[in-house]
Specification:
This protein is of the alpha+beta class. The protein has 3 domains: about 10-115, Ribosome hibernation promotion factor-like (Double Stranded RNA Binding Domain, 2-Layer Sandwich), CATH 3.30.160.100; about 125-230, no CATH class; about 260-350, Arc Repressor Mutant, subunit A (Orthogonal Bundle), CATH 1.10.10.10. Helices cover about 55% and strands about 15% of the residues. The protein is built from 13 helices and 7 strands. The strands form 2 sheets. It has a 5-stranded mixed sheet with strand order 1-2-3-4-5. A two-stranded antiparallel sheet has the order 6-7. α1 links the parallel β2 and β3 (about 55-65). Residues about 1-15 and about 355-360 have low confidence and may be disordered.
Length: about 350
């Protein structure tokens, strides 16, 4: 049994805080171990991109056990926001012990990232619902008093979730030639949602929450843009350029290193990326996602993204799209299968059995 009471040496390798503990190891073994680990840490570093450097702390311990046929036992304890990850591996060859520990750490990091994505999506959805519910009485007052600008400035900072969805759809419209690059700005599309919301606020459906109703209005506008191949505002007199509607990112997005591009953990939550996938930058990853998504009919693609990215249930997606829930479910299943097939054939994904929800 090893208690790792050897001398602790602090290092900061590739912006990650690393502590080494050695027991029963010669100085030459220590140096070989550190040098070989640097090659392995590059992959771990890529996986942790986005998480603040000062919140990533890795403790590595190496114990040489002569009584167990000259075995090197390696342990890694990685402290990340909200979670501590741990792994260990033993082998009679030092390099194999390092390889084994690195592979195990990669596995637990991938699971952590999946859990983080699911956690963030759930927290964001909860925050959006609460924020819109909080301002709804103010919007009612603004509408009754005909305070149009106040209505806009109250609701606009809360619609980042619509802007993200609009951005994805515009990108696909550009790829398939429906729109020219830069022809429509997602900001303008969300502004148009507010114009529609203002005009129809008193007649909004009683069976839909404000969040789902706004998402439904966005889909009305998306359908208009797809058919008309442009976005023409219904209210040219409403000048919005001077209003600041910048929304600050949520604390959990910054701490957990969440980035706004589409993620594998959202589209295929039961799968993890291979090393080939990890080496792609965000631009290349998005290209592959959009390559598949643009092949779907718009209603099928939008149902898939509403469910995968926004966390809407099948019933909620059906309400937003005003479609039969069974047809929505079928579209989402087909989309998931086609995305999975593409990613598997390209060698981008593996697994399929990792749990993706934070423990409650």
């Amino acid at each position: 049994m090893c208690f790792y009471v050897g001398k602790i040496i602090n290092h900061r390798e590739a912006d990650m805080q690393v502590q080494w503990t050695f027991e029963g190891c010669a100085d030459t073994t220590k140096e070989k171990c550190r040098a070989y680990w640097k090659k392995k840490q590059e992959r771990l570093q890529r996986l942790l991109t986005g998480i603040p450097a000062d919140t990533r702390k890795l403790r590595l311990a190496v114990c040489y056990q002569e009584e167990q046929i000259n075995t090197f036992e390696m342990r890694g304890v990685l402290r990340l926001p909200g979670r501590t990850l741990a792994a260990q591996y033993s082998h009679h060859q030092l390099s194999a012990a390092v390889d084994g520990l690195a592979d195990k750490l990669v596995t637990v990091i991938l699971k952590y990232k999946q859990q983080s994505t699911r956690f963030i999506r759930r927290q964001r959805r909860h925050r959006i619902s609460e924020d819109l519910a909080a301002v709804q009485p103010l919007l009612v007052s603004d509408k009754k008093a005909d305070r149009k600008e106040s209505f806009f400035t109250t609701i606009r900072p809360l619609l980042g979730f619509l802007e993200r969805h609009a951005k994805n759809e515009i990108k696909i419209y550009e790829m398939e030639g429906t729109l020219n690059p830069g022809q429509v700005d997602p900001v303008d599309m969300v502004n148009e949602v507010i114009v529609l919301a203002w005009e129809n606020f008193d007649e909004r459906p009683t069976n839909l929450s404000l969040e789902l109703w706004l998402a439904h209005l966005l889909h009305e506008i998306l359908g208009r843009v797809e058919s008309e191949k442009s976005l023409i505002s219904l209210d040219q007199s409403f000048h919005l350029a001077d209003i600041d509607f910048t929304a600050e990112p949520d604390w959990f997005e910054e701490v957990l290193g969440y980035q706004e591009e589409i993620s594998l953990a959202e589209l295929l939550p039961d799968y993890t990326g291979t090393e080939i996938w990890e080496q792609l930058d965000n631009l290349d990853r998005n290209f592959h996602f959009y390559t598949v998504l643009q092949k779907f009919p718009s209603y099928q693609r939008q149902a898939y993204l509403l469910h995968a990215l926004n966390g809407y249930s099948l019933v909620e997606v059906a309400q937003i799209q005003e479609r039969d829930v069974n047809k929505v479910e079928n579209d989402i299943n087909i989309s998931t299968e086609k995305m999975r097939d593409y990613m598997q054939k390209a060698g981008f994904i593996q697994g399929g059995n990792l749990q993706t929800a934070f423990d409650d």
